[in-house]
Amino acid sequence: MFDDLNDLYQQVIIDHSKSPRNFRRLEAATRTAQGHNPLCGDNIALYLEMDGDVIKDIGFQGSGCAISKASASLLTEAVKGRSKAEVKQMFERVHDLLTKGQTSGGDLGKLEVFAGVHKFPARVKCAMLAWHATLAALDGQDQPVSTE
After folding, report:
1. Is the pTM of this model over 0.90?
2. DSSP 139
3. Domain coordinates of the chain in residue numbers?
4. What is the pLDDT of residues 91-138, one digit of tens each?
């Protein structure tokens, strides 16, 4: 059963890497952020359209490895419609998932496909790049974020 689950997780990551969701520039963006992972060359531009404290819409553009692109794609689906506070809490749970392999009782949904990333420390930064960029955008940070 574990092999079947692992295969499913890999298929989801490959699908989101090859056909990323919300891969677009948002012309109505009210907040943006740039992110860079010098270790692997991942680059991301993240666009948020906020409605008060809630992410009304989100998009991203950039290039990077399969983990980076899939993470950004899945992130955009997970945070749309959520408040800044909810996204910050989600960031902490995703960070624990990626660094320790600890799930939060299934409340991360599709993001749990990254549960195995903690076994590959070099890939943690790839998977976290979009999350760091999202927090920077939510906080109105002007400087590009880096995983270093």
Report:
1. yes
2. T
3. 2-146
4. 999 999 999 988 766 688 999 999 889 999 999 999 999 999 999 999
* Predicted confidence (pLDDT) per residue in 16-26, tens digit: 999 999 999 99
| Helix-helix angle 2-18:66-79, to 10 degrees | 90
Distance CA 78, CA 86 (A): 11
**Interacting residues of 57 by C-beta distance below 8 A, sequence separation 6+:** 26, 28, 48, 49, 80
Question: Which pair of structure tokens corresponds to residue 101?
Answer: 């392999």
Q: Which residue is listed with tokens 């880096």?
A: 146
Q: Is 66 exposed, middle or buried (0-12, 13-18, 19+ CB in 10 A)?
A: middle
**CATH architecture of the domain covering 2-146:** Alpha-Beta Complex (3.90)
